[in-house]
Structure formats: structure tokens, C-alpha cells
Automatic annotation (TrEMBL), chains A, B:
Domain (HTH tetR-type) ranges: 25-85
InterPro entries given in the database record: Homeodomain-like_sf, HTH_TetR, Tet_transcr_reg_TetR-rel_C_sf
Keyword Transcription in annotation: yes
Top-rank lineage group of the source organism: Bacteria
Pfam families xref list: TetR_N
Region listing for Disordered, in residue ranges: 1-27
Organism per entry: Frankia nepalensis
Name of the featured protein: TetR/AcrR family transcriptional regulator
DNA-binding residues: 48-67
GO MF annotations in UniProt: DNA binding
Swiss-Prot/TrEMBL keywords: DNA-binding, Transcription, Transcription regulation
Length: 213, 213
DNA sequence: GTCTATACCCAGATAGAC
DNA sequence: GTCTATCTGGGTATAGAC
């Protein structure tokens, strides 16, 4: 490296695996994935570097080559979720109608009912956990929920639903609350049934908007 | 004490303050109250004995005279919430109609909007936090939510609402989800507006049941 | 770049004087 | 009953050999 201001600069978020097609992802990526999983199952405060390093099969001391501090790793976890949300919304955007897109979003939680029953909603749980921290991480997770609400509000607007932003908040609230109860009672069926009801509510909103334009 | 099997037996949950009318509550009670507050603001994992002892103005070592382990103290926190829930529901039961009782329950969250924005719903947060623990505490918090749902289902049944249990779950889910978003965005208004919408939903359920008995 | 060993701190819990 | 001092374990973070 001729252009040197830092002797050893971490890879800094390469697109995907840096190696050949079949090799497992690089260490940085493995660490992020493990941390994301453990933050979901054990909560943010239970996400210790020892657990993450072990799950990623990376020696503990080596973690600090990729992340200066534990908070940096947690920030990367939020970014990872942001990527996943963007991917999901992009795939939903390919559907033909706003109604189908909104239902697809709701269905997405129902499909993960078992995971949600076991550990809660990854995004909702992360938000709640980060909200109880002291540092700059506090506000960092609300952006995931914000993205989802804004997207839903856009779909509702396209449907001609009046008061779309408030309806979007209600929709997300119903999903998040259902996820919380599902986790509390460890009962996937609660989530699938509640999502069905939410899909009905989406239909009613769409039908009402179509009837009175 | 003539009836001695234990040399020093902790007070074991006396009804209220053991002293004269104006003295502050006993140490055990102060510890429970401080722990309840800190569990709300810092989360269960952030509820350290040092913090609790300091807030209750009790020396750290003395905590163990009242609670054998930290888990015991956390169990006492859940019990404290259970008491508060029972009190709330008992006071609501004095209202004349199920509709008014249900709205009163919803209003209860709206009145605490600032606290919810700052730290989330005490019960929902506790449930989520305990769900991520290993030990026997895991299932212990779901009972608070269970109590609320069962009570709401009873009120809806009395109203003649069909599928009352599922409607009760939906109602609680909406409240809990609204609380989660309110906390994530640190915005009390979000909760008050969402509760208003939930009250409207209660009216609609009641009106519909009355129209078609 | 990678990994071992370890410093350092703060948590829960205990001992024992008072 | 009350409180100080302390033990022990596990957490983040660093030093430094390779």
C-alpha cells in the first residue's frame, strides 16, 4: 500500500465474501452475522464478545481487529438489519399492487412465527434494548422502524387511504405488539392468527378507500 | 420468638410499612420499589444490585438479608407489578359498563405516555427482558400480560362481542405495539393518539355487538 | 493479519465484625 | 439486624509474540 495513513486498516464493509465462490464468508461478516443472531436470542446486553467470537469461530482477541469497540460491532448489527429491511422492501416493491405489498410485509412476520415466539421480533427487540442503553446507540435502532413505517405510509397513500401516516403507525404497532405477546407466551399461533387479522384490516382499508375516492 | 426453626427469617412481604404512619417504608419494600423502577429504566440486565441498593439507600451487603439472590429480587419485582395490575383492574371493575372499563384500561397507558416514551411499557419491557434470560424467570412475566388479556376478554364477553379472546389479544397487542414505537421514537404523542384510535375500536366493537345480539 | 495471554473492572455473592 | 471488606467470575479491552 503506497497510500498509507493507517498502517493496518480494517476491510471496512466489503460487499460480500472477499474470497472464492465456495469459501465461507470472511471473518468480519461472520462476526456481524453471529452478533446479529445472538443479539436476537440473548438481547443486546447478553451479546458478549466471547459468545459472538465463539459462534463466529474467531478468536476473541481478533475481534478487535475488525471492530474497535463492542459498540462498533452493535452498530454493524443495526446496519445489517437495515440492509435486510431494504432488501425485503425492494422485493415487495416488485409486487403489482400496494395492497399485495402491504400484505406481503405482514406475511413476512407470520413466516418467522417460530423465531418470533422463541426470541421476539428482531427489530422490535433491538429497538427496545438499545433504547435502554446510555451512549449514542440509543436512537440508532429507531431508524429501522422508521423505514418500515414510512414505506407502509407510502403504500397506504398510493391506495388513497386517508390519514395514511397514522394508519401506518397503527399497522406496525399491531405487528410489533403481536410479536411481543407471541414471544411472551411462546406461542407462534398467536402471531399467525393476529397477522391474519391484520391482513383483513389492510383489505378493509383498501376497500374503503376504493369505495370513496 | 419461641417458634424457631430459622434463626433470622426475613420479613417475608409484610403488607405495607412496618413502622409508624409517617416513617418511610421498610427496607425490603424500598428495595422492591427501587428495583422495579430501575428494571423499567435500565432493563432487567441493567438492574444491578449496586444501583438498586444505592437508590433504596440500603448498603449493598444488606440486600442479601432480604433477598437470597438477585433472581429472588427480580421475582419480587414481578410480584410488585402483579399487585399493581390487580389494583388497577379492581378499580376499573367499579365502573358501571364493560365499555367504560376497557377504555379505562387503555387510558391508563395514555396517562403514562411520558414514562412510556422514556422507558417503554413496564410490563411489556419486563416480559421481553425476562424472556431472554436462561433460568426459571423466563416464563414468570407472561402472567402479567395473561391477567390483562383474560380480564379484557371477560369484559368483551360481557359486551357480547363474538370471538372475545382473540379481540382481547388484538387490543393488548395494539397497546403494547404502540408503547414499543412510542419508546423507540421517544414521542409521547404517538401513544396518546394511538390510544385514542384504540378507544374508537372499543366503541365499534361495543356498538356492533349491541346492534346484532 | 492472526492469536494467546493477560490487565482491568465491575458484577453477584459471602464472611464476619459490630 | 446491620454493614464493611472481600472473594470469585466473567466482561471489555490491550500487549505483544508470531
Amino acid at each position: 500500500m503506497s497510500d498509507s495513513e493507517e498502517a493496518a486498516q480494517p476491510p471496512a464493509a466489503r460487499p460480500t465474501g472477499p474470497r472464492s465462490t465456495t469459501a465461507r464468508p470472511g471473518k468480519r461478516e461472520r462476526l456481524i452475522r453471529s452478533a446479529t443472531e445472538i443479539a436476537h436470542s440473548h438481547g443486546v446486553q447478553g451479546t458478549t464478545l466471547a459468545l459472538v467470537a465463539k459462534a463466529a469461530d474467531v478468536p476473541l482477541g481478533n475481534v478487535y481487529y475488525y471492530f474497535k469497540t463492542r459498540d462498533d460491532l452493535l452498530r454493524a448489527v443495526v446496519d445489517e438489519h437495515a440492509r435486510r429491511v431494504d432488501d425485503l422492501l425492494a422485493s415487495l416493491d416488485r409486487r403489482s399492487t400496494p395492497r399485495s405489498r402491504l400484505k406481503g410485509l405482514a406475511r413476512n412476520w407470520a413466516e418467522a412465527a417460530d423465531l418470533v415466539a422463541a426470541h421476539g421480533c428482531p427489530i422490535g427487540g433491538l429497538s427496545a434494548d438499545l433504547g435502554k442503553l446510555d451512549g449514542g446507540l440509543r436512537a440508532c435502532a429507531a431508524r429501522l422502524l422508521r423505514t418500515l413505517i414510512d414505506w407502509a405510509a407510502g403504500q397506504l397513500t398510493e391506495l388513497g387511504v386517508p390519514d395514511a401516516p397514522a394508519e401506518a403507525v397503527s399497522l406496525l404497532a399491531r405487528v410489533q405488539g403481536a410479536a411481543l405477546l407471541t414471544n411472551a407466551f411462546d406461542d407462534p399461533k398467536l402471531l399467525t392468527e393476529e397477522i391474519t387479522r391484520i391482513e383483513r384490516a389492510i383489505d378493509q382499508l383498501a376497500d374503503a378507500a376504493q369505495a370513496a375516492p
